[in-house]
Structures are given as C-alpha cells and as structure tokens.
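Sat 14:20. Reprocessing the chain from the morning session after the first attempt stalled halfway. Input below, unchanged.
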Amino acid sequence: MTIEEQPEPNPTSDHILDWLEDSVSFLPSFLDDPYGSGDIGCYQWWDQDQDFTCKSANSTDCNSVPVASVLTPSDPALQLSDSSKKRKSPDDPAPGEACNRRRKSQGDVGEEAVAGKKSVGSKKGAGKTTTGNNCNNGNNSKEGRWAEQLLNPCAAAVTAGNLSRVQHLLYVLHELASPTGDANHRLADHGLRALSHHLSSSVSVWPITFSSTEPRFFQRSLLKFYEVSPWFVFPNNISNTSILQILNLAPSQLRNLHILDIGVSHGVQWPTLLEALTRRSGGPPPLVRLTVVAGIDADQNSDTPFSVPPPGDNFSARLLSFAKSMNINLQINKLDNHPLQNLTPNLINTSPDEILIVSAQFRLHHLNHNSPDERTEFLKVLRKMEPEAVILTENNMNCSCSNCGDFSTGFSRRIDYLWKFLDSTSAAFKGRESEERRVMEGEAAKALTNPGEMNEGKEKWCERMRGVGFSGEAFGEDTIDGARALLRKYDGNWEMRIEEKDGCVGLWWKGQPVSFSSLWRLEDTKPNNS
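Finished this time. Tokens:
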C-alpha cells in the first residue's frame, strides 16, 4: 500500500501524539542539550493532562516476578535471614550496605556471586564519570555485577541438570530481584523471569513493552529515550548524514531519493533528514520515497526487540504532514507484517531515475545464520536491488543461538547485552525511576527469551557483506564529526571508536562494545573520490 500526500488529519479525531508538528525545533534542540532540556512534558506537542499508566494485556501487576515451580522456600537449605530481603521502602539500606549484608546471609552462593562488592566505592576503572547507584559504581570489570554472578551460574546449573543448585540460586535471585533500584536488581528481575520461562514456559506476567502500551505513551517513551541515550540516535545520526553525503555525490541533483528502511526508529529517524534535505544546495530531490519494512507482530517471545509498535500507532500520516510543511514531495510505502525472508526487489519497486539507499538497523540479526543461512541470502537480495549504498548497524556481540553454544553460553551473552542496556539507562535517567525507562528496558529484555536473537560480531557481518559483492567504505568527515559532537552530549561513559581496517564506527559503553555502523557500496560502483 502506497501512501500519497493526504489532507492533514482532523485534529478532533487524531488521538495519536503529533510529534512531528514541531520536530524542526524539537529534534535539534534536544541534541544541543539533552540533559538540560528538562522534563519532556515541556514540549508544545505534549498534552500534559494526558494520564498514562502501565497497561499490560497479560497482567494487572507489571512489577510482579513469577517464581519457577522448582522453588521450595520451605527447604531449610534455602532459607535466608531477614537481612537478605530486597529493599521495599526508602528507609531500607543503601545499595552498598544491602550488597554487603546479603553477602553475609547467602552462604556459598553469596560468596561466589557477590564477592565483587568489596569494590564498592573504589575508583578503579570508574571511567570519566560515575553515575547511577550501582554496586560497581562504574567499574568496567564484572566484579560489581553481582546479578550476572547469580544468573550465569544458575543457567550453567540448568544446563548441567543440577536441580539443587538451580533451586538455591533461583530462590536467592527471587529475594534480590526488583523491577526498581539499580541495574543489578533490575537485571536480576528480568533474568529470573527468563530462567523461569525456560524452566516452565508458563510465565504469564511480562514487563511492559511497546506492544502493551498506548500509542501516545509509546511515542513519548521513544522520544524521551532518544533525548537521554545515544543507543539509537547515534546510529540514526550516522545513517542520515551518510545519506546526505551519498546524495551530494550523485551525478545529478534532479534524481529522486528512495530509502529502504529496515529499522526500529518508528519514523523518529526521518524528520531531521527531511529538514536537512531542504538545506541542500538546490533544495530537496523532486521525490523522496520511503519504503518501510515494518516488524512482524508476533507474540511476546518472538518479535524482534524494539521493532513492533503498539496497535494503533501510525507514523506515516504524521511524517507526511511534516514533509508537506517542509515542501518535500514524500511518498511512504509501508510493508506491514512482511518477513524479511520474503523480501524481493519487485516488492521494493525501484526505478532507474532514483537513488536507492538501504538503512538496516538492528533487524538483520534476527535472521537465521545456520541451516538455512537466511542472512547471506537476504544480503544477496539487497545486492540484486543494486542500491547506491547500504548502511548497516547491528549489535556487536557474539551469537547466542543454540547452534553456537549451549543454553548457559547463549544466556550469558544475552545477559551481558541486557546489562549494558540497563546500566546505560540508569545513567541516562540519572538513576530516577521512570515509566518511559521501564518500557524501553522491558523491550530490551525480550532478548533473554527470544530464540531469534542470534547476533554476530562486527567482523562476521563485514565478511558476509564482502562475500555477496559489497565493498566497505569509510564514513565521510562530516559524518564522523557530527557523530563525535553528538556523543559528547551524553554520559561520559559512552565512547566512539573508528576501525581503520573496515571503516566501521563503533558505539561503546564503559569500554565494552554495544553496536557498530558500517557503509557499503557495490564492488563495481565504488566512487574513486570516496
């Protein structure tokens, strides 16, 4: 279905947050000062009287954590003293004190899992800044990451079939897990839920995610996250400036622009690009086409994290209205519920008078890479489309599928991914509790239970791209300078690294890789002046 320009929606019936109405002034302003912009409710497009609550179709309590049926609290070996109970009120002890006290009450498990808490208050490896209230206080090592030191041994015990150790560790986790508090408590909460699901497959209470929210709250959460964290806005910025760079190198400014969007931005990426197009010498292209391959609306455990919006969300009308206000001729073709495996050049419907650029972000790792090798086959399909360029952004981590390791190996890799997300959001939200933060973290936590979360490292992705006929290209100077300037506006533990070998730009958190962005052209069309 192709969406042409339409009359502006009736304001009395449009209940969706019109975040594009003031996007020209909003998006650059929060990039100038993401921390000083204050509460998101101050923006003109936001209805501060709107009441948003945590709505989940599956439960009435978004904070409760199920306990697997293997737990037997009456077993004396599993009893914990009162001092080990998790904090439930502001009068409870500080995180460091709680960590130390729990260590004394947990026996051999506590000694193994919480030994790293001796580093509380230490400045070793603290990085540029120390934010949040985690027990590790910014330590780059895993010493202060006590939740992992409980979750990973529990997964190993599950793999080994050691029921008594599984019982012990799950009960300890249940005592320490909390949907609030520092990143360790929240990681224990999500990890306990994932382990319980793996053991019984009967977990009915899930954290709030995109699909269980209202459209307006979904948009508010997404924009707030863009405001305080570079997790998505950093690769979006690289993609947009690269598109401008490629467009400016085109032989004629009269050619149309066609973008194939395989991402998770839900339209938030494109207002700044459209605005930048109006500032080009000669103005925007005669026609801008945006083909969006939307995420598959599956169940809680199958859809790709961050890819599926709530029912009723429709960014196309808002984006078209914004483009019209900028005098840009925009067409949007949205492919809903269309598997990437079934994508063909005919569906994209390219034409000779346009420049096709593919922007793929955080979606391709969900394709199988074993038997069959869906990733390589999909990249071959992109090659057949003969795009001017492909901008690929993916998680930079090893695969966690069952073919690349046992359950405990894959689980530990997923836990490491989620830790970086939770730890960075703690810093992004200044340690404050927030429903917006909670919905983003709930979405990220899908990685723990989703069997399709099969990541690969940067080197493997580059090998795949070269294998199907693409050639890597370094990002332009404007792209690098813009990304570096953008990253300075966020927490000091974020870092940008440029790989000289392949030209990839990596986003790192506390010395650990998070994602990478890369630019690719067809081998026989790489320009000489690039």
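Confidence is low (pLDDT under 50) at residues 1-139.
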